[in-house]
Predict the structure.
Amino acid sequence: MDREFWLRQPRLIAAVVCFALGIIVAGVGFISHWSQPQPVGFTSGLGEPSDLFADVVPLDAPIEALETTEPAELVIYISGAVLRPDVYRLPAEARIKDVVMAAGGFTPDAATEAINLAQPILDAEHIHVPYQQDGQASRADPGETMHTAGGTQLIDLNQATSAELETLSGVGPVLAQRIVGRRTEQGPYTAVEQLRDVPGIGDKLFGQLEPLVTVGR
């Protein structure tokens, strides 16, 4: 009897089958959803995720160039016709006049007219003030490699030894060797401007050396 009832109700059978399939699909979807790993938020008092990286500098941020600084003070040795020849510490902007004043001033027999009091100085420089009987002033006693030009003694780049070149303003042992090495490797200097070819001599140092040197013929 029941079998004949269902055979006479095909629409009812179809509805029951669809309902059952819907329950099965919903159950599978529910299980699949909860089986997937769930994202974990940045909470627990840490703030928003972006807050964790607030202090991070971007890789493309410009990097400020390192700035070279001048020495805060100069250490200068002054000798010759001053009252207290010695080593003195002076401000970075000091001139030869400041060194002379620190040394107590000129002696009565100093060749004051032969030295440029307004000339700037460099750290570790040796200033020599000659006596009147010594002739012209110089940064030190350069020996026989000095020439007179316009009342100023000049060091000959083609004859001076390394030790004599070291008496120049801003020239140390390494730079003096480079000056000598340049004329040994490339031949005698033909112009003072060729000092610019020596590694370590920039525009500032060349400007200080130019009035102190010459090229022998």
In short: Residues 40-44, 136-151 have pLDDT under 50 and may be disordered. The two ends are 139 Å apart (CA to CA).
